[in-house]
Amino acid sequence: MKIVYTSLTSLLLLSGCIDFFGGSRENDKVEILQEDKSPNGRFIATSFFCSGGGAAGYMYWNVSLRKAGEKLDQRNGLLGKHKT
Fold it and tell me: 9 by DSSP, 3-state: which?
C-alpha cells in the first residue's frame, strides 16, 4: 500500500512539470509593434511583443530578422534561439 501512495504522489508531483494547457506557440498572443523591409527587400525586421502561458504566464519584447517571405516565428528572435 505504501508503494502505491508513493507512486501516486510521485506521479502528481511530476505532472506539475508538464504544461497541458498553454505555453505552446499556438497559444502565444503576438502584437507586431513595427515591421520594415531592408533596402533591397530581401529581409524583414520585426519588433514585437509576445505573451502567453496562462495564469503563470510570460511576456517579452523581441526583434526578428528573417528573409522576406518567411513567416514570423515568435520563438526565434534575436534575443531568443536565433540561428547564426
Answer: helix
Query: The pTM is what?
Result: 0.61
Query: Distance (Å, rounded) from C-alpha 31 to C-alpha 84?
Result: 25
Closest alpha carbon to 77 in 38, 30, 42: 30
- Collapsed DSSP state (helix, strand, coil) of residue 49: strand
- The model's confidence at residue 71, banded by pLDDT at 50, 70 and 90, is very high
Q: Alpha-carbon distance 70 to 84, whole Å?
A: 16
Helix, strand, or coil (residue 58): strand
Give mean pLDDT, residues 75-83.
64
pLDDT greater than 70 at residue 75: yes
Which residue, 66, 54, 67, is CA-closest to 20?
Answer: 54
The 3-state DSSP class for residue 4 equals helix
